[in-house]
User: Fold these one by one.
Assistant:
Number 1:
Amino acid sequence: MLPPFELLEPHSLDQALKMLATSESVPLAGGTNLLPDLRARGEAGGRFISLAALDQLHGIEHSDSRVLMGARTTLSDILHDPLMPTAAPSLVSMAKVFAGSMVRNAATVAGNICYGSPSADVVPPLLSLDAELTLASAAGERTLSLNDFLLDYKKTARRPDELLISVSWAPPTTGTANLFYKLGRRRGDAITVVGVAVTITIEKGNCTKARIALGSVAPTVFRAQEAEEALVGGPLTATTIGTAAQAAAQASRPIDDIRASADYRRHAVHMLVRRLLTEAWQTAGSQHD
Ligand SMILES: Cc1cc2nc3c(=O)[nH]c(=O)nc-3n(C[C@H](O)[C@H](O)[C@H](O)COP(=O)(O)OP(=O)(O)OC[C@H]3O[C@@H](n4cnc5c(N)ncnc54)[C@H](O)[C@@H]3O)c2cc1C
């Protein structure tokens, strides 16, 4: 049984932001992190602000230059959006292996990002797409990169009076491959052992942009920037891919836990980064044929 808690139910974003500014309260979206946590604590919960009626935070808009995703967009919404496979292929691959369908129907993008877990599956794809977040408070809005938002284990740059209202990114251009792979202990409903997202852009046979984002192998999801730098400026060969995979494994700071040892995770990063970069090079290169 859930312990008792107070629920505020604003009907507009303004009302929600005022409540957040004036009461000690926590935003409640799908509740798939918050409610299990409340149950596990077993003591009377605090005050939650339901985002359920804030329809303006829900949905995905596409333009040629930008994809704008509302904070309350669910994992199922990602799977049902017909333009998403080209606007964010890695995000679609991720949504397919995220929990089961009941959780996917409730779990939101904002909840996944704001919880700040190192195993948050939404985050590596969005980091690999250079996503930006817009946060709102009663004092106004600010936009920052997802990379700058993630500070440490379950620690983000969100202030207590702020709501994440949207996530945006530029859709991949021709010659860009964007891939994700989740390694778990089983195919469905498993916490990620290692999550890898890569984005590679190829122009005239050379790699002009590389992003490698890793989940579950450090206190927070992060970009392996040295590995990215090893790839830019030339074609991706077995040697450059191997160097980048090695650098990504070295940048990881995994822990031993019930799901896998740190050594296994580091090894998996090496193998998966190599595999995804090889596939990305072939996919991006073939778009110019
Ligand atoms: C059975 C099960 C399976 C799961 N499988 C996976 C999985 O495969 N991969 C994975 O990554 N996660 C998984 N999860 C975890 C969870 O479903 C996700 O993290 C989900 O995206 C959280 O979203 P939510 O809307 O339910 O967030 P909530 O639980 O409502 O909130 C989570 C946190 O985000 C904050 N928050 C929510 N919305 C906002 C906002 N707009 N602005 C500011 N703060 C906000 C809340 O205050 C809270 O701190 C699973 C959970 C369960 C119970």
Number 2:
Amino acid sequence: MDPSLAIETSGLSKHFSDNIAVVDLSLRVERGEIFGFLGPNGAGKTTAMKMLLGLISPTAGEGRVLGAPLGDLEARRRIGFLPEHFRFHEWLTAEEFLTLHANLYHMEQEYLSQRIPELLELVGLTAHAHRKLRTFSKGMLQRIGFAQALLNDPEVVFLDEPTSGLDPMGRRLVRDITRDLRAKGTTIFLNSHFLSEVEVTCDRVAFIKEGAIVHTATLDSLTNGELHVAVRARNLTPEARQGLTHWCRNLQVEGDQLTFQLDSEDQLPLVNRYLAEQGVDLYTVQPKFIALEDLFLKIIGEGESSDPREVSGNLET
Ligand SMILES: Nc1ncnc2c1ncn2[C@@H]1O[C@H](COP(=O)(O)OP(=O)(O)O)[C@@H](O)[C@H]1O
Ligand SMILES: [Mg+2]
């Protein structure tokens, strides 16, 4: 095994009596990588993550996180974890809750008295530091969960469905925090059953189904192709509309809704700039990478009949 990798597993499997949750999982995640583990409910994502964290032991196979065997206590000090379903000590305030967890890490008083306010600020809960968790909304609980996962300034963070149940503001916060972590070189392992979640944050994605990885692909390879764009705009003049055909194929306009296709993502800023220069008011611009969505549906959505080998393109595995 390669100690320079953030995460590496070989043949990792987990059976619960006659239920096979994870089958022969072999993974390599580089340091600094944002790795998406994408699959429907029941695919085995949480089970795989719990094995990586050493919270449950594998039936077969082995793995390393930060160069140490799974569950190693020294390595665990350098790992953060946001569980999928967590129950907090609801009688504690946000600050008391983080202090409790900091104490579980045996953090120095000096460090935690600076780190806790910093994290409350990061997740937008400074104003609620002295409120009991009992009074928190689901979104606020998810934020404090995030702060907890980052307390020890981890080198690897495991996020299990971090945006499920969050409103758009909450999802955006998660995305921003993930980007900050990326900029710092933190490795992120992200479980999700939402394509949109991995699409915007991850470098690489593994599609998992019925306990096994069915494909691994870099987001680059999947987002290089044709792009479908939906725009909401007002004041589109006939001239501006005519000008758009320079880049856009299949341009359709219905009221303030425009849809079109571009040959690559690189054209999108040019189109945006053009529309702005023409005095068009842009409300939303939504790009959709067809290759990624098609692949997702083929592998994950449409079930048993599709053969993943039919999927062509720039896949690695
Ligand atoms: N403790 C357990 N006992 C028995 N079966 C379990 C247990 N945990 C998970 N499973 C089963 O393992 C499979 C994978 O579950 P899970 O890892 O939670 O999937 P995901 O996180 O992708 O939704 C499911 O069929 C689930 O019912
Ligand atoms: Mg799960």
Number 3:
Amino acid sequence: MRIRLDLHVHTTYSFDSTIEPAGLREICRKRGLDGVAVTDHDSLRGSLEFAAELPDLIIVPGSEIRSAEGEIIGLFLSEDVPPGLTAPETMRRIREQGGLVLMPHPFDIVKLRRMTSRRLEELRGEIDAIEALNGKPRWWLANRSAGRFAARFDLPVTAGSDAHKADHVGLLYTEMEEFADPTGFLASLRGASLHGGRYSPWASQLDRWKARLRK
Ligand SMILES: [Zn+2]
């Protein structure tokens, strides 16, 4: 059976997101999603709590880790990977616990800390998938460049909203075959289709500023 997943969602366990379990359930129902990957900043806790609260949804446990070389998503994690490590060390720690390395918005050149194309190429053997459709890269050609990079190195691709509010969940999603484990997930990504498009390049920046003001 084909399922629809938004593979990049932040919850209230990210300082800049307002998504709670009830809101997530409602928007998934409304948009016809089977689930999401919860990828909070430097924390796995949100995905574990959301999985416990929402047994009717598929919740892929993950975290968007701020490595010293930019953000890296670990999927199917069972323990936190600390921020601030080098990219190869971050990837190693994701893989050693059986997780998958997903590169979020890799070509958003407006981001200050990110890997160059050359660096990604160097590390491509440690990368399981590329996010080729992100909801809000600030650089408008970022998704196209990510898709090209993935095609060049035959890496599977994903779509994720990078939502920080419930309204944005499911505006982008990955449609793929059901899977039982990380290996199955990767295999079914090979036959996945990506849907949606960039919705609001400055959304997360605004949310971040607002969160800072509230502090
Ligand atoms: Zn994110």
